[in-house]
Amino acid sequence: MSKNCEKLKSEIAKKNGHTYLQWIFALLANCTHMAYGLECGWISPTTKTLQSETSPSGYPLSDGQIAGVASSMSTAATCVVIMHSYIADIYGRKINIIIIAFLEALSWIIRIFCTSFTSLIIARVCAGIAAGGCYNVIPMYIKEISREDLRGILCTFSMIFQNVGVFIMYFIGAYLDYYTVMYVVVGLPILTMLGMILAPESPEFLVKQGKIDQAIETVAFVRGLDKDDTTVQTIVEVMVKDAAHFKSLPNLTLLSIMKNKIWRRGYILIMIAFTFYEINGAFAIITYASTVINSTGIEFEISPEIQSLSFPVVMMTGSLVLASCVERFGRKPLLIGAYIVSSLCMFGLAIIIILHNQLGGVPGWLPIILMMVVLAMYSGGVCSVTFLILTEMFNFQIRAKLMSLVVTYGWLLTAILLNIYLPLSNALGVYAPFIIYGFFNLGGVFFTIFYLTETKGKSETQILQDLMRRKKTDNEISCIE
Questions:
Q1: Are the CB atoms for 235 and 242 separated by under 8 Å?
Q2: Core vs surface per residue 424-442: b (16+ CB within 10 A) or e
Q3: Nearest C-alpha neighbor of 444 from the set 469, 160, 436
Q4: DSSP assignment, residue 363?
Q5: CA of residue 328 relative to chain centroid, distance
Q6: For 191-200, how does the pLDDT look when each residue is reduced to its tens digit (9 = 90+)?
Q7: Tens digits of residue pLDDT in 406-432
């Protein structure tokens, strides 16, 4: 009897397949985000060392040189996003991820053997070139190898891994010397690169290249099903149908994509969504945390190590909460809730600063709590959900091209936000930026309610049809089928 039960369970498992390979490859690809998090967190604990008399560079670096090292990564990332999309479209998502991991490893290797100011700039530029592909290639790959009911949670791990990287760097950077840190972290991108060599290529890219048999084998492999399984055949047939449709169209350039009314509307909406996301203000808090705390008049004695570690801890918590509920509640409700809470906290910070300047006596714990909540909402909602919607909205034939434009725009807004924060504070008052952030978050609430559609469990066609919000003509329907 027991043998029959075991045999039945085995047959059911074989029929339903498995998901553990999807988890393994998604987490492996997300290790590039952890390496990016290590890079983001490197400047904070290393600045004191680089500006000391025993600096690895041979002399103390000035504030301007530190700023140059810090900003070179985002500057490089802004310039190369389109390059990554080209590589992903022509040579494949897998190759692109391997290149990203290689550049991340190269960045740390340069800093091990060359420590001059010029070498640090070159190393950070390498890291920036890699970072330029993290937020468009990695989500694209994960989405294309994952089951629809898994893609939400697997994509949210990008933010979790990034925050883990920041946490690790803050921790080891505070207690280990310059070179030991390098030797500890350089292994991660190297192992990621080696692991991705064994990973499968995206089945949608294989179909686009006309490699139908390989696409069938990949879908069957990652889902634990037979190649002739109905589910596998149906999935690939849909990809082939889409590929055939797009192949029958003229060459898809950015101009031709923008001429399509439905794609253009989707693109405009996601660009507006990214505007609200980037000017949410959380990244300014992360970058200028000490300045913000000082502006509130807080006298809060806490060790630098604990204070710096609290930010990635809160952000990791927010990301984990999102991962546990993103497939249960959907994208839109979570994004609305994150914007509402962020707006209230930003207005609260502005009020606290004003009260401190006028009356004084503001409780020291209150602004700290508000800042922590903003970071949790950013990590667990505003950032993660916005990127998830971006990856789910467009067909794989145009996804890389449009994501390159959107992510480039995002990097540019980030650079502008960080550059204008201090001048804005000095000109209008330290409370002014938070009032602006509060209104932008409030705008994000109304925009999400009235213009964005729920993408959970929907195909790209269904999402774009929902975005039109009216009866479709025959020509429009044929454009998205």
A1: no
A2: bbeeebbbebbbbbbebbb
A3: 436
A4: -
A5: 21
A6: 999 999 999 9
A7: 878 887 887 777 667 767 777 888 888
